[in-house]
Amino acid sequence: MQKIRNVEFELDTISENDIFICAIGYEERSRYLLNKLKNLVSHDKILMLYFDDLRETKEIMTYIEEKRIYGIKTINVKYEQGDDVADLIIAFLDGIKDIIGNVYIDYSAMPRSWYSKLPDKISQKLQAEVYFLYVVGDYPCDYKAYPSAGIDSYSLIGRSSLRDKKRLHIIGIGYDSVRTEALLSILDPDMYAVCSAHYSQDDDMEQRVQEVNLKVLERAVSSVSLFTDDFSFLVARLCEMANEYLPLGDVVFVPDGPKPLIMAMSLVPQIINKEGVVCMHVSRNLECYEPMDVQPTEKVLCFGYMNV
Q: Whose C-alpha in 78, 107, 167, 213 is 20 to 30 A from the C-alpha of 291?
């Protein structure tokens, strides 16, 4: 059984014995927490993953090299190495003689293929609660500034029943309505529900997401809007939806939107552990994707995850 709880993240609770793991990307927000914690946590207890294609970006590579000089462990990881990330983190934790502090993982800049299985794997390894951090981004008002990420490959979490019944898809939505509509045209679902999520104090974001996804919402059998800063309820509501629709056939989560929503949708099949509840990850098409620098806000969302 899994225990998930909302945690109020405060810098003054961090100690030098805590462990901090993060991924550095193009976004400024990917460096926000590392810059805050580098003087609070012992450097030999910090692991910084960075993308392979960042080697072409001089400014970011200079930043990474500076941290390496100060004793922070850095590992170059390719985007498609999602299955290896948990093993890399576990190997890093194995190298620490005594883990007496908390383990914090900042997934703000990680691809979904990296972070989606970390809660279960890392918690099982440590037999302790692990804390996951997400820095809320300052997104531009013009959603059109974000290009469509495109569609590449698919991967599944959970067990499909392959029952000869209708399937209900639960679609996560965000700013990339172009990709969402393309996905729906490919999946051609019998019926689907829609889920969006936003920071509770940013209603404008939710309104913009609703506006750009009008066509998707019009065809949905139902829709629900949840808060990213109430992660435990977000997961519980998605589990409730899965159990509600499962008698009709397989329930397929197709996550998109903010990372806490994607994380929550990815966890549902692992938590429910029932045949017929799956999560379909759609990898972005790198040829269609243009990275964009998202600035950090001072809002940091945190949830604790533990196998009990």
A: 213
Pick the CATH number of 2-139+291-307 from 1.10.287, 3.30.250, 3.30.43, 3.40.50: 3.40.50
pLDDT in tens, the chain (308 residues): 899 999 999 999 999 999 999 999 888 999 999 999 999 999 999 999 998 777 667 888 899 999 998 999 999 998 888 889 999 999 999 999 888 899 999 999 999 999 999 999 999 999 999 999 999 988 765 555 555 555 555 677 777 765 556 789 999 999 888 889 888 988 888 899 999 999 999 888 889 999 999 999 999 999 999 999 999 999 999 999 999 999 988 999 999 999 999 999 999 999 999 999 999 988 765 555 566 778 899 999 999 999 88
Domain 148-282, CATH 3.40.50 — does that match? Answer: yes
* Helices 259-272 and 231-245: angle between axes, nearest 10 degrees: 50
Q: How far apart are CA 153 and CA 285, in angstroms?
A: 8
Comparing 2-139+291-307 with 148-282, is the CATH topology the same? yes
Supply the angle between the helices 118-126 and 82-94 in degrees, to the nearest 10.
20
Cα(144)–Cα(142) distance, rounded to whole angstroms? 5
Please, what sign has the CA dihedral across residues 200, 231, 266, 242?
negative
Q: Where are the domains of the chain?
A: 2-139+291-307, 148-282
| CA 148 vs CA 84, 171, 284: distances in Å | 27, 16, 9
CA 244 to mean position of chain CA atoms: 24
Rounded distance between C-alpha atoms, residue 145 and residue 105, angstroms: 29
Please tell me what DSSP assigns to residue 294: P
pTM greater than the 0.85 cutoff:
yes
Separation CA 27–CA 43 (nearest Å): 22
Q: What is the rounded distance in angstroms from the CA atom of residue 192 to the CA atom of residue 171?
A: 7
